């Protein structure tokens, strides 16, 4: 304990009191007035505190002061350790004491204590002091080891710490050192606040304490501030001080995620339901230093609260009248916050100053200037100062939004750059362009003003002409993209509360002038639209003989062209925006997600509308919102979501454009005709005439090709709507083919157009029955011929000559035909009998044609056969089924070339009853496999039997070394074994260093050892259900009954589809350098006829 020292009284000196004050530098900004939770209405402030010196002052007093005055006169609540020398002064009446005499008291305090120190300058103050003493006695100090000193004010009572006298200029002088309390210091207030919060959290827990140990409610924060500050302050001030700790930079308080209201409004509420936390980083780095000015006293030592304030413009004791705030602000200059370089207040934003040109020149100049020239100068002046405004706002966009967002944590880091590029686009290029334009305009204006006292600007057209060429590229990129930028901002604002807070906080800044974020985003678009008006105003007031007239006309035309191009491209961008909106509102069926790829770059929405689908019983109908994109057709049910916006529930599987087929619209695409089928007068549709209406609706039949597709009978509201849908689909398929022209690897070449009437045909020609097979060959005259087999015989003729087909054989159930080129033999499998014919005797173009048709039966009860070359041997392998086994015979021809006269003996018939014609073939090998088989193919040195077990590899030279592919015991082929009988092998082909194994559902590759290959893809899945496959490296062709699909065996992707009815493969031969692929389908425009075609490769096939 320190001793209690009682100071001795000193005589009063005649010298006046010296008092020195130092004023701290304070900078703040004022926000809009609002009423807080306590009902206290006042103005919010944000602080950028700067303290240029310490907030302390020292009273110096001579030793010759009057006798000591009792502390009670000064309103000091006296501790028990105080010892007063005398009470005479108090009893003698203190009203006559001057303020200097009151302050020049001399007394020592033994034990340092804190007390309430106020001035008793009036009865009103005295009553306030006594009431404050009675209410609380001592007020808690923030830190007892700090000295406090303030101007005597009643609510903000001072903490006084008095020490021993210190000699000053003379030995008989003593000094009393008193300092302000630190209520207004953020560092002191913050430290005590943190300490109180930690003490509070140690004694109680709330729901968020587990996750945030130092969390507290808004009511607790206001209560702690109430404890730390003096009593007698306005109730709303405690909430405002707590909010100040939230708004300092870096903040000391932040709202938790549970407090959505506080996050949304970015403020602190005196509520027990709003929860906040301390910012650990701020505490570790040190609480920012600054001053909360409403808690500071007035620096005028005679200014007390309740007296109306003093001459100081920042006096806290002044009663502010909101009605004359503007007047006072004009007189005092007001409080202004420091602005950034780009957001500094220029005269162009000052509403009190006129921006007209006439306000910048002398009155005499205006009087002597013609009105037309005044109007011209006003228009030139307007385009210059609005260009300055435009550049400034672009800089604000950069400084307040673009740059902060690129580093702001409110957007995920992996998405931030993409989002910012999408929103801000090429604004920096626009800023650079217009900065240079404005500088040139401003420099020219300054030059004109320096040369002419009147300040006339002679011309601006030439300046714009130097910069306008750069407008086209920049605005064509920025302008159309604005709608997408706005949508991205809207979506991010809805989904991201942190981004929403960032935008709201930035919009509140004074630099933004209460303008929303959208203003700065669309500003380049609105500016470009305004340029023609600004230039037109100058042009209108420019005389015809003026040198600037020609340049201004050219500028006007260029600006209109730029604006028109931007508008036209904006239409495409709005289509993209619509696609984004559809994508965001698509809803999938449970368990049926689809990769729609709607956001892929370059995606187009070609058409959308309503089509009606009826139930089978025509009891009810459902309206579908149908979207036609450039890559697919999407059918959805439209409904309202929870947020009131439209949602699109997927109704049917999306139809890829390659698999989309519309009756009486797209039939001609497969044969290279790109026009509507309805333009062909003979076009009719079996089973349903879609050219007629059903009641008030008009049907349109949409086919989704493939195993997962189906037929959808839809109804349009009118014939015009139906025709428009068809045209749009045709246009979409044409556009897709043009865009993917490099993927058109095969074209259809007509072999027989309308020679064969179908089995149900009613055409004028004879019914030849179903076409089952075909084979090309070189005729006797050197022309390419074709032989076609049907269920009723064989026809021959020149390729492509529809009127030149002749029946050469009348046979029933012709299934297969093949030609042995070297021997000139036609092999025919008819009614399960394999017969060999001399091809020359059947050729209708042969000059030596006779009525005889030399032939020889090779085998009977044959299910199928194939002819080819294996180990340099020409072989014909035929399969005969015996029970569940498949028995094979390989025949080798021995007759030689039947066109050679030396082999004429093979063409003669038998000469006697017992004579026998020489055999044309000999049996080369016989073998069997113990299961069902479907086909046989030739490899270079082996043959492949396609059977139910897969693919049997047969070495005809070593029949005991047969091998089966794939090895179903290998786990890699488990997907084949799982499907069991649902899959059926079709064919096996050699693909350079590996083999392609084709099934009716998929295809995959194996190496020479039979191991599974997963390079690029593991399994190629067919879209359709192919019944036959053909191969032309690097493409494999699958024949479904509704279409032909072509796939790349290297990548596995679908590259081409050719739609048609009753598609089937007639012939596949790979013996030649270019494989031969023949097919047949219903004629696209003559449904009664069968259309025979050849798939002709548009590439150079490789082996």
Automatic annotation (TrEMBL):
Q: Where is this region: Disordered?
A: 1-75
- Keywords for this protein: Guanine-nucleotide releasing factor, Phosphoprotein
Indicate, by first and last residue, each region the UniProt record lists as having compositional bias (Low complexity): 64-74
Which InterPro entries does its entry note? Answer: CNH_dom, DBL_dom_sf, DH_dom, PH-like_dom_sf, PH_5, PH_domain, Rho-type_GEFs
Q: Which PROSITE patterns match?
A: CNH, DH_2
Composition bias of kind Polar residues appears in 54-63
Give the DH domain ranges.
Answer: 375-569
Biased composition of type Basic and acidic residues is found at 1-21, 43-53
What single Pfam family name could you report for this chain, choosing any that match?
PH_5
The CNH domain sits at 768-1073
**What protein name is recorded for this chain?**
CNH domain-containing protein
């Amino acid at each position: 304990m320190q001793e209690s020292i009682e100071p001795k009284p000193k005589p009063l000196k005649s010298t006046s009191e010296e008092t020195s004050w130092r004023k701290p530098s304070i900078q703040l900004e004022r926000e809009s007035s609002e009423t807080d939770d306590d009902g206290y209405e006042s103005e919010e402030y944000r602080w950028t505190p700067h303290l240029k010196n310490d907030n302390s002052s020292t009273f110096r007093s001579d030793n010759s002061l009057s006798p000591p005055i009792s502390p009670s006169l000064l309103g000091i609540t006296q501790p028990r350790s105080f010892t007063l020398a005398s009470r005479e002064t108090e009893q003698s009446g203190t009203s006559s004491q001057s303020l200097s005499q009151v302050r020049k008291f001399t007394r020592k305090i033994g034990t340092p204590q804190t007390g309430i120190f106020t001035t008793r300058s009036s009865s009103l103050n005295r009553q306030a002091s006594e009431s404050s003493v009675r209410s609380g006695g001592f007020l808690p100090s923030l830190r007892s080891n700090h000295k406090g000193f303030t101007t005597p004010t009643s609510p903000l009572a001072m903490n006084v710490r008095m020490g021993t006298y210190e000699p000053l200029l003379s030995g008989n002088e003593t000094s009393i050192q008193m300092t302000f309390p630190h209520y207004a210091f953020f560092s002191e207030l913050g430290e005590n606040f943190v300490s109180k919060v930690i003490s509070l959290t140690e004694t109680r827990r709330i729901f968020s304490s587990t996750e945030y140990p130092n969390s507290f409610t808004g009511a607790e924060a206001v209560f702690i501030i109430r404890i730390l500050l003096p009593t007698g302050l306005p109730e709303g001030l405690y909430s405002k001080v707590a909010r100040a700790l939230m708004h300092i930079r870096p903040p000391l308080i932040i709202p938790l995620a549970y407090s959505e209201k506080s996050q949304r409004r970015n403020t602190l509420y005196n509520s027990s339901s709003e929860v906040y936390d301390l910012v650990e980083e701020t505490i570790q780095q040190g609480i920012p230093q600054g001053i909360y000015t409403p808690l500071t006293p007035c620096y005028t030592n005679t200014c007390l609260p309740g007296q109306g304030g003093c001459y100081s413009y920042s006096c806290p004791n002044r009663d502010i009248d909101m009605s004359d705030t503007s007047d006072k602000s004009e007189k005092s200059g007001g409080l202004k916050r420091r602005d950034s370089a780009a957001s500094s207040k220029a005269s162009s934003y000052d509403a009190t100053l006129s921006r007209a040109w006439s306000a910048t020149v002398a009155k005499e100049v205006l009087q002597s200037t013609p009105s037309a020239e005044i109007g011209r100068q006003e228009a030139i002046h307007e385009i210059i100062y609005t260009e300055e405004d435009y550049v400034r706002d672009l800089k604000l966009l950069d400084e307040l939004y673009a740059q902060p967002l690129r580093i702001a944590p409110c957007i995920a880091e992996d998405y931030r750059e993409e989002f910012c590029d999408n929103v801000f686009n090429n604004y920096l290029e626009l800023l650079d362009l217009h900065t240079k334009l404005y500088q040139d305009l401003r420099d020219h204006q300054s030059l004109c003003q320096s040369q002419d006292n009147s300040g006339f600007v002679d011309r601006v057209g030439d300046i714009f002409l130097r910069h306008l060429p750069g407008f086209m590229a920049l605005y064509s990129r920025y302008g159309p993209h604005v709608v997408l930028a706005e949508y991205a901002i809207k979506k991010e604002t809805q989904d991201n509360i942190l981004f929403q807070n960032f935008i709201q906080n930035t919009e509140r800044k004074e630099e933004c002038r209460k303008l929303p974020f959208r203003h700065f985003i669309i500003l380049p678009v609105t500016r470009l639209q305004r340029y023609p008006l600004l230039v037109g105003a100058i042009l209108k007031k420019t005389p015809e003989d003026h040198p600037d007239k020609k340049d201004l006309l050219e500028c006007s035309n260029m600006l209109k062209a730029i604006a028109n191009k931007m508008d036209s491209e904006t239409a495409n961008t709005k289509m993209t925006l619509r696609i984004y909106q559809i994508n965001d509102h698509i809803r999938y069926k449970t368990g049926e997600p689809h990769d729609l790829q709607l956001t892929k770059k370059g995606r187009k929405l070609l058409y959308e509308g309503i089509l009606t689908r009826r139930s089978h019983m025509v009891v009810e109908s459902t309206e579908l919102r149908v979207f036609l994109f450039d890559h697919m057709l999407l059918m959805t049910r439209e409904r309202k979501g929870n947020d009131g916006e439209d949602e699109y529930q997927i109704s049917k599987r999306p139809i890829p454009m390659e698999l989309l087929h519309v009756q009486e619209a797209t039939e001609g695409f497969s044969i290279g005709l790109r026009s509507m089928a309805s333009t062909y007068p003979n076009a009719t549709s079996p089973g349903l005439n879609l050219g007629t209406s059903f009641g008030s609706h008009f049907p349109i039949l949409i086919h989704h090709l493939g195993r997962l597709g189906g037929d959808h009978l839809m109804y349009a509201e009118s014939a015009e709507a139906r025709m428009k849908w068809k045209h749009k689909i045709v246009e979409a398929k044409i556009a897709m083919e043009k865009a993917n022209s490099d993927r058109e690897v095969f074209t259809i070449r007509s072999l027989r157009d309308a020679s064969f009437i179908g089995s149900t045909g009613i055409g004028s020609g004879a019914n030849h029955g179903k076409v089952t097979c075909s084979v090309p060959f070189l005729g006797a005259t050197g022309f390419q011929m074709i032989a076609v087999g049907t269920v009723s015989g064989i026809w021959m003729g020149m390729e492509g000559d529809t009127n030149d087909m002749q029946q050469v054989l009348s046979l029933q159930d012709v299934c297969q035909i093949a030609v042995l080129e070297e021997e000139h033999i036609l092999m025919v499998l008819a009614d399960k009998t394999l017969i060999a014919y001399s091809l020359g005797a059947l050729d209708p173009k042969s000059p030596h044609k006779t009525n005889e048709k030399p032939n020889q039966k090779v085998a009977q009860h044959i299910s199928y056969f194939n002819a080819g070359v294996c180990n340099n041997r020409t072989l014909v392998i035929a399969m005969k089924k015996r029970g569940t086994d498949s028995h094979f015979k390989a025949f080798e021809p021995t007759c030689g070339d039947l066109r050679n006269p030396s082999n004429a003996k093979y063409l003669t018939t038998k000469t006697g009853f017992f004579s026998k014609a020489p055999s044309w073939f000999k049996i080369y090998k016989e073998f069997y496999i113990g299961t069902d088989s479907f086909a046989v193919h030739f490899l270079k040195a082996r043959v492949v039997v396609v059977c139910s077990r897969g693919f049997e590899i047969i070495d005809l030279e070593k029949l005991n070394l047969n091998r089966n592919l794939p090895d179903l015991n290998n786990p890699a082929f488990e997907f084949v074994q799982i499907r069991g009988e649902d899959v059926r092998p079709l064919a096996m082909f050699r693909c350079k260093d590996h083999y392609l194994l084709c099934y009716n559902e998929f295809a995959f590759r194996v190496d020479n050892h039979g191991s599974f290959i997963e390079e690029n893809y593991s399994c190629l899945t067919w879209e359709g259900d192919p019944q036959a496959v053909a191969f032309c490296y690097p493409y494999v062709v699958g024949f479904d009954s509704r279409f032909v699909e072509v796939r790349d065996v290297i990548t596995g992707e679908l590259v081409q589809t050719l739609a048609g009815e009753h598609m089937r493969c007639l012939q596949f031969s790979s013996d030649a350098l270019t494989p031969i692929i023949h097919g047949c389908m219903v004629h696209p425009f003559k449904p009664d006829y069968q259309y025979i075609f050849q798939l002709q490769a548009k590439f150079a096939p490789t082996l």
